[in-house]
Amino acid sequence: MNLDNQSKYLIGQIISDKRDKTVTVRIDRKVKHPLYNKIITRSKKYHAHDEHNQYKVGEMVAISETRPISKTKSWKVIRVVKIN
């Protein structure tokens, strides 16, 4: 699947796969501190849909924005980018 034609996608690491058909993906981004000018890491967690429970903890995956699937899920896993 080509990532260029997707509406919006993010790349992050799976940190939990305990729930049925759902994985939790942590997205890290680097930002510059406004006062001290040091690069710091900010992270955010997203719940993504995994239809066949095929993705495991530690894998780097691409997730794409989709219609709301549940109260907290509006992302789906597109593919594995890298396996750790």
Task: Describe the SSE topology.
Elements: E1 9-16, E2 22-32, E3 39-49, E4 60-65, E5 73-82
Parallel strand pairs: 3-5
Antiparallel strand pairs: 1-2, 1-4, 2-3, 4-5
Model description:
This protein has 84 residues and is mainly beta. The chain has one domain (9-82): OB fold (Dihydrolipoamide Acetyltransferase, E2P), CATH 2.40.50.140. It has strands at residues 9-16, 22-32, 39-49, 60-65, 73-82. A five-stranded mixed β-barrel has the order 1-2-3-5-4. The relative contact order is 0.30.
Strand content: over 45%
Instruction: State the total count of DSSP E strands.
Output: 5
Count of helical regions: 0
Task: Please identify, by name, the CATH architecture.
Answer: Beta Barrel
Largest beta-sheet characterization: 5 strands, mixed, barrel
The helix content, as a percent range, equals: under 10%
Low-confidence stretches: none
- What's the end-to-end separation, in Å? 21 Å
- Radius of gyration equals 14 Å
CATH homology superfamily: Nucleic acid-binding proteins
Number of domains: 1
Shape: globular
Q: What is the CATH level 1 assignment? A: Mainly Beta
- Main sheet: strand order: 1-2-3-5-4
Structural class: mainly beta
What's the SSE pattern?
Answer: EEEEE
Mean pLDDT: 92
What is the fold-level CATH name, i.e. the topology?
OB fold (Dihydrolipoamide Acetyltransferase, E2P)
